[in-house]
Specification:
This protein has helices at residues 42-49, 119-141, 159-170, 185-191, 223-231, 255-259, 274-287, 290-295, 305-313; strands at 2-10, 13-21, 31-40, 65-73, 83-87, 102-105, 111-112, 151-153, 175-179, 195-198, 214-219, 233-241, 263-266, 297-301, 320-324. By secondary structure, the chain is of the alpha/beta class.
């Protein structure tokens, strides 16, 4: 038996609870993992609270990330004791996820824990950190180097935003952080932000083309914010879009793309090819200041994750929440 958060469907609504589950109920897969740590992402919060139809089948164990050790493997690439992590691939959506003490998955989904990261730090990064790294890699591949100008990070108080600031600062970029929580300015400066702007400057309807202010962007917000970020991007700048906290719409104009040659790059972290995943995780292991990662992360027990999910959706959580299984905190 193992403990997990279980989401069950009750008519038109869903309900999440802590449940004891028999190992025999685990879904199909060729590798069984003893999960030591998971994390609580915005998508997990939506699934647990039922605010969006993230879980596609029921009952469902949420959690789009997990890290732990292999218990049993039918895949020759992995043996008991191997330290591994997973993010994406429908975990917590169509396949039982990481907010549990056990998981059974496909070996094709596993990434070996990179040297330099333990399971707790890997989950302090999680999908949020991995996505932030994919965004930065995209900026680099489009030749947006530190000398080209500052990078704006929207949703800076969240997981993607916080890790993006850490990465960009380490690589020598000047960082502008956009947040709706001005009281977090000190925290964001400590992570490495050079300038803080209020998200209200970007969150409403704006001009098709605005004064050029940044060479690139990491946007996890979408909607008007993404449109305004594009409108204020410099000549041949690059905007990476990886989230939709404000909305899925894009009330913008083609003007930045035609008149300034701006590039908009979509980041789909869920089904990224394995070689891209391995590159991103290897880069994270050698880029992140772990002391600052500790500053932006907090460890909670599995039993605390359900109320924390509501606080996360309400914008009351700063940084990253790591869920430690068992008695480990």
């Amino acid at each position: 038996m193992f403990q997990a958060i279980l989401i069950e469907k009750d008519g038109p609504t869903s309900r999440a609870r802590i449940a004891d589950i028999d190992d025999g109920a685990l879904p199909e897969g060729d590798v069984t993992v003893r999960v030591s740590h998971s994390t609580l992402n915005y998508k997990d919060g939506l699934a647990i609270t039922g605010k969006a139809p993230i879980a596609r089948t029921f009952p469902m164990i949420p959690g789009i990330d997990l890290a732990g050790s292999v218990v049993d493997s039918g895949d020759a690439r992995f043996k008991p004791g191997d330290q591994v992590l997973i993010n994406g691939f429908g975990l917590g959506e169509t396949h039982w996820g990481g907010l549990a003490e056990r998981a059974r998955v496909k070996g094709d989904w596993l990434v070996r824990l990179p040297e330099g990261l333990n399971a707790a730090h890997a989950m302090a990064l999680g999908t949020a950190g991995y996505t932030a790294m994919l965004c930065v890699i995209a900026l680099e591949r489009h030749a947006v180097t530190p000398d080209k100008g500052p990078i704006i990070v929207t949703g800076a108080g969240g997981g993607v935003g916080g890790v993006a600031i850490l990465i960009l600062r380490h690589l020598g970029y000047r960082v502008i952080a956009s947040t709706g929580r001005p009281e977090e300015a000190g925290y964001l400066h400590e992570l490495g932000a050079d300038e803080i702007i209020n998200r209200a400057q970007l969150s409403g309807p704006g001009k098709p083309l605005a004064k050029a202010r940044w060479a690139g962007a990491v946007d996890s917000v979408g909607s008007h914010t993404l449109a305004n970020v594009c409108a204020a991007t410099m000549e041949r700048g690059v905007v990476t879009a990886c989230g939709l906290a404000q909305g899925m719409d894009f009330p913008g104009s083609v003007a930045p793309f035609i008149l300034r040659g701006v590039t908009l790059v979509g980041i789909n972290s869920v089904f990224e090819p394995m070689h891209e995943r391995e590159e991103a995780w290897a880069r994270l292991a050698h880029t992140i200041d772990l002391a600052k990662l500790d500053l932006m992360s907090k460890s909670i027990a599995l039993g605390e994750a359900i109320p924390a999910a509501s606080a996360l959706i309400e914008g009351k959580i700063r940084g990253r929440l790591v869920v430690a299984m068992g008695t480990g905190r």
